[in-house]
Each structure stands twice: as structure tokens, then as C-alpha cells.
From TrEMBL:
Species classification: Bacteria, Bacillati, Chloroflexota, Ktedonobacteria, Ktedonobacterales
Keywords: DNA integration, DNA recombination, DNA-binding
Family matches, as InterPro entries: CB (IPR044068), DNA_brk_join_enz (IPR011010), Integrase-like_cat_sf (IPR013762), Integrase_catalytic (IPR002104), Integrase_recombinase_N (IPR010998), Integrase_SAM-like_N (IPR004107), Tyrosine_recombinase_XerCD (IPR050090)
Location of the Core-binding (CB) domain: 57-144
Pfam families in the record: Phage_int_SAM_1, Phage_integrase
Protein name from the UniProt record: Tyrosine recombinase XerC
Residues annotated as domain Tyr recombinase: 165-337
Record organism: Dictyobacter halimunensis
Top-level taxon of origin: Bacteria
Length: 337
């Protein structure tokens, strides 16, 4: 079997293929690069980790409370690590003792320019610069929201985000051909069905346990997506309804492969191989990955009439991942609009 080298990347704070940062256009019409704040979620009194913060608090003193805020809001370990690294670089540039209330939009612009052009021969990747803008908006919006600062120096930051190339989805005929080919093996059939009919990510498929599959009502099977507490992804947990035929598909898989605990007890590379065999058997020539199956599911959902908010809930996407995915799926589902 030829090694399937296709890799699926984890969502990062902001994804962009090219995002030139120029001082002339950093400040303009604001765009949303971070979480929308629900006023109903605001606590009645400041949380303990923020009680002593005010506009005279030093930038360095905000690091600990900011980390706790990110964790409380369910940010992934990757996002927390990246944002705290960005904050450390901002502290190194601005000075540890500067009061947060004295930081201006000119200060944050200068920092971005230093990162972009300050080291000859070492230009950061566009995605890295995009994430740093996202960090600034996240950090200072948090301070503003909690009334620690009166003016948000990142409020008018903008970032050019050219649209990345769209994937070539499976056609309806190719979906049918792939499902027919997958039926030759119970494990492959279960894998392909879960992604094409429930939109699961590869990591979610690999995390499935038998007790996450609810077949109490065989006519209304359900799958629960759960994450370990250490991942900080509990906000992405959800239950997804599947067509009734999945009950027989899963029972067949359990019987043929003696599945009792982990639904797919194999590596992510093995999952790629399983899919590759079905794609070859279906005589599909285009590049097909598990992520492409998820994209195909998402676009079909939109075409069937689900709202964007409803799709986001089904896919379990974080705020950062949804920023780009929303536009991608809209363009794929309704290219003429």
C-alpha cells in the first residue's frame, strides 16, 4: 500500500495564506478577528483572578490573569501557549512596567512593524503575523470588556485576509461511489459514514468510545463527541443524530472487528490507509482526505438549508477556526452569491 502522506492540520487562531501588514492600512474599518462577547455571560462581580486589575496595572502583571481567562473560556492548549508567547514578546518590546492604560494604538502598530520588518532576513510567516493581530484584539478586548482600560488600542486593527483556494469537493456521484466501495469492509463503511453523515473530525473519530454511540433507539442513533479535560475543548462537545441505517452499520462493524472499547483502535495513518483503499476501489481520481469528507458534509448541510450557526454547532468549531471556515463553506455551497 502506498503511504498516504496527506496530513490534516489543527485549527489555529487565524488562518490566512497571505496577509501583508503595512503601517498605512493597519488602522481602518474594524473587522472581527476574535470572540463575540455575550453580555449574558458577564459575571456579576469581577472574577478573583481579575479583582485587583486596573488601568495602572503593569503589562507584565496581566500575564497570569490573562492565562486564567483563556483557560476559563475554553481556549485550546495551543492557543493559550501561542497567545502567552505573543504577550511575552509584547512585554519585552513595551517594557514590563508600563501601565496597560497607557498603551496606545501607535504602540501596538510599532510592535507589529518591529516583528514584521525589524529583523533583516527573518520575515515572519503571514499566518504568524495574523495570529499576533488576533492576540492583540483578544487581549485588549478582554481588558476593555472588564473595564480595566477605557480605550482599546487594538479596536481598529485590520488585517488583509485573501481568500485561500477552495478544495474540490466530492460530487453526489462520487459520494455514492465511495459509500458503495466502503461497504466492502465494515470498518471502512463505519469510518466513511461517520464523517460524510455526521461531519466528525479525524481527532474526534479517533477519540470515540463504544459508550459514545447511543443505539438505545435503533431508529434514532446518536453519537456523542467528548474531549479529555486536559484538552480544554469541552466547549466543542456535542451530540449528533444519525440516520437509522447507521445502527446496522455499527452493529456489523462491532461483530466483524470485535469492537468493545475504542471504536477505531488504530493510528491516524491507518485511518488514511483505510480511506485510500475505498477511494481507489471507487475509482475516484481527485485528492480525497478525511477533511475533504468533512468539508463535503458541511457544504451539503448548507445546501439542505441549515443555518451558519447551526452548522457551526454541528461541526464543533472554535471561534478562531470558524472565522475562515464560515466563508469557505459559504463560497462552496453558494458560489454565485
Amino acid at each position: 500500500m502506498q503511504k498516504d502522506s496527506e496530513q490534516e492540520t489543527q485549527p489555529i487562531a487565524v488562518q490566512t495564506e497571505e496577509a501583508p501588514i503595512e503601517q498605512d492600512n493597519l488602522f481602518g474599518t474594524p473587522i472581527v478577528l476574535d470572540d463575540q462577547f455575550d453580555e449574558s455571560e458577564a459575571p456579576a462581580s469581577p472574577p478573583e483572578h481579575m479583582a485587583a486589575l486596573n488601568e495602572q496595572t503593569s503589562l507584565a502583571a496581566c500575564a497570569g490573569p490573562y492565562r486564567q481567562e483563556l483557560m476559563l473560556r475554553g481556549k485550546s492548549n495551543y492557543t493559550v501557549t501561542c497567545f502567552l508567547s505573543d504577550l511575552k514578546m509584547l512585554i519585552d518590546f513595551m517594557g514590563a512596567d508600563i501601565p496597560v492604560g497607557r498603551i496606545t494604538k501607535e504602540n501596538v502598530t510599532d510592535w507589529l512593524m518591529k516583528l514584521k520588518f525589524g529583523t533583516p532576513g527573518m520575515t515572519p510567516a503571514p499566518k504568524t503575523m495574523a495570529r499576533r493581530v488576533t492576540f492583540l484584539k483578544n487581549f485588549f478586548t478582554w481588558l476593555e470588556r472588564e473595564h480595566i482600560i477605557r480605550e482599546n488600542p487594538s479596536a481598529s486593527l485590520t488585517l488583509e485576509r485573501p481568500q485561500p483556494p477552495l478544495p474540490e469537493l466530492l460530487t453526489d456521484d462520487e459520494v455514492r461511489q465511495l459509500m458503495e466501495a466502503a461497504q466492502e469492509d465494515a470498518r471502512c463503511h463505519c469510518l466513511v459514514y461517520l464523517i460524510l453523515r455526521a461531519g466528525l473530525k479525524k481527532e474526534e473519530v479517533m477519540g470515540l468510545k463504544v459508550h459514545h454511540i447511543d443505539l438505545i433507539d435503533p431508529h434514532n442513533p446518536l453519537v456523542s463527541i467528548r474531549f479529555a479535560a486536559s484538552t480544554n475543548k469541552q466547549h466543542r462537545e456535542r451530540r449528533i443524530a444519525l440516520p437509522a441505517e447507521f445502527t446496522d452499520i455499527f452493529h456489523r462493524y462491532q461483530q466483524d472487528y470485535h469492537v468493545t472499547d475504542v471504536v477505531f483502535p488504530c493510528t491516524d495513518r491507518n485511518l488514511n490507509y483505510i480511506l485510500a483503499r475505498a477511494v481507489s476501489a471507487a475509482n475516484i481520481k481527485k485528492r480525497v482526505t478525511l477533511q475533504l469528507l468533512r468539508d463535503t458534509f458541511a457544504v451539503q448541510q448548507l445546501r439542505d438549508g441549515i443555518s451558519l450557526d447551526g452548522l457551526r454547532e454541528k461541526l464543533g468549531l472554535s471561534d478562531e477556526a470558524w472565522l475562515e471556515s464560515k466563508e469557505k463553506y459559504r463560497r462552496l455551497a453558494f458560489p454565485a452569491k
